[in-house]
Amino acid sequence: MTNFRLVIQYDGKRYSGWQKQGNTGNTIQGKIEQILSRMTGYAVEIHGAGRTDAGVHARAQIANAKIATEQTAEEVMDYLNAYLPADIAITACEPAPERFHARLNAKGKHYCYRLCDGSVPDVFRRNYICAWERALDIADMQKAAACLVGTHDFRAFSSVNRRFKKSTVRTITALDVIRDGQEIWFDIQGTGFLYNMVRIIVGTLVEVGEGKRRPEGIPEILDSFDRQQAGITMPPHGLMLEEVFY
Amino acid sequence: MTNFRLVIQYDGKRYSGWQKQGNTGNTIQGKIEQILSRMTGYAVEIHGAGRTDAGVHARAQIANAKIATEQTAEEVMDYLNAYLPADIAITACEPAPERFHARLNAKGKHYCYRLCDGSVPDVFRRNYICAWERALDIADMQKAAACLVGTHDFRAFSSVNRRFKKSTVRTITALDVIRDGQEIWFDIQGTGFLYNMVRIIVGTLVEVGEGKRRPEGIPEILDSFDRQQAGITMPPHGLMLEEVFY
Q: Does B136 touch chain A (CB under 8 A)?
């Protein structure tokens, strides 16, 4: 058995997200497992670092898969790339220590949400940038973002349901709001993220940028533990899993 | 009548090219004229600087349209962008001198052909980059490219038919072959280009890069006036009309 560590890039547009959903759903995990299972002749399971939602992209998702094969890492990668659709690519594959687990060993993740405010989005990037009709105030969004950095209970900024028993405390180590020409990048790093957390954080910051909320209101939202107090969930296509830290 | 000068950006993938083809074909020109005609209530004609082929993209195609309207250039642009599909955008619109004609006044054009050799293409740019399985020799392609710069009869490097009576002499002012990470850019500027000329030039350079042809063989191809002597026509999706000069 070799434990292969894969780096996976995908355009999430056509998929119901990373995670396999029984026999239904067109998922990234499902696509890759299907090809590895055909290659080996038995059911291979892969473990991804982050369960990206439907429509969310990844520049470097990490996964591992234990495979009994004589094939080298390069051969496994070439086999996968030969059969994967053009919107999923394996960009690296290497043998990892037997105990390496892509999700359990992950120490943090880096996501970036991109939007284009008050101007026509670049047509060549339209599938990766959310178009926002009104211009946004960067300084106010930066002030609000600063209130979210650190260790907090992010229940209000997530779509986990009320009966979710696990801890909703997470640490955001960095949250930068950067203007890059016509685009605004929300660059966020943390130890882990709850369901829809990045998209709800960005939705809340966008409402601040529009002047609908004050940056000073953020701590109150955190303290409410109430999803209704936070902003909208932004559309998925602006979100990219950039990197996983180990 | 106001003569509006439009800057148009498009992803050519879904279209049969720039130029209207009677009542058939899904073209960029057709899409824009349809919306302008609806706006004004009569048939508006637009003139594009370059007739990009089916599947070819443009970052800044230039066109002009004479319209009898009270609307400002900004209103015309907003109207177009409101009705155009997401893969076509008007990035600028301004009133131009009455005699301005986007095609007849164009002094030159800048195209760029992008490919990715010997590696998996970036999935987020896959619609704009041609994947090429084998690694290419840049130095040899640069030598070959240098033979094409200048004023030549480019009949051998075009798909014009034998009975084409007009001059096939064109001037290439610059043709650079640049490696940019995993991508190779064929950056070409000239006074004008024949049908398929850029894609055939790049196809011929790629065959040089693969070692199938010698750079020294280029002048002989020019002198043959024979399409069969040049290389393949590269696929359209790697080609972008970058800029039009006036």
A: no
> Can you tell me the distance from the alpha carbon of A7 to that of A48, in angstroms, rounded to the nearest whole number?
10
Q: Within 13 Å of residue A146, how many CA atoms lie on the same side as its CB?
A: 8
pLDDT in tens, B193-237: 999 999 999 999 999 999 999 999 999 999 999 999 999 999 999
A53 is catalytic: yes
Helix/strand/coil for A240: strand
Please indicate whether, in this complex, the C-beta atoms of B124 and A121 are within 8 angstroms of each other. Answer: no
Task: Please state, in angstroms and rounded to a whole number, the distance separating the CA atoms of residues B59 and A60.
Answer: 28
- Rounded Cα distance between A12 and A61, Å, is 12
Q: Which residues contact A92 (CB under 8 A, 6 or more apart)?
A: A5, A6, A7, A77
- The sign of the torsion formed by the CA atoms of B236, B125, A82, A52 equals negative
pLDDT digits 0-9 by tens, B121-180: 889 999 999 999 999 999 999 999 999 999 999 999 999 877 778 899 999 999 999 998
ipTM of the assembly? 0.87
Beta carbons of A210 and A67 less than 8 angstroms apart = no
Chain B environment of A133 (Cβ under 8 Å): none
Q: Name, in order, each residue with C-beta under 8 angstroms of B27's C-beta and a sequence gap of 6 or more.
A: B15, B16, B17, B18, B19, B20, B21
What is the reported pTM? 0.89
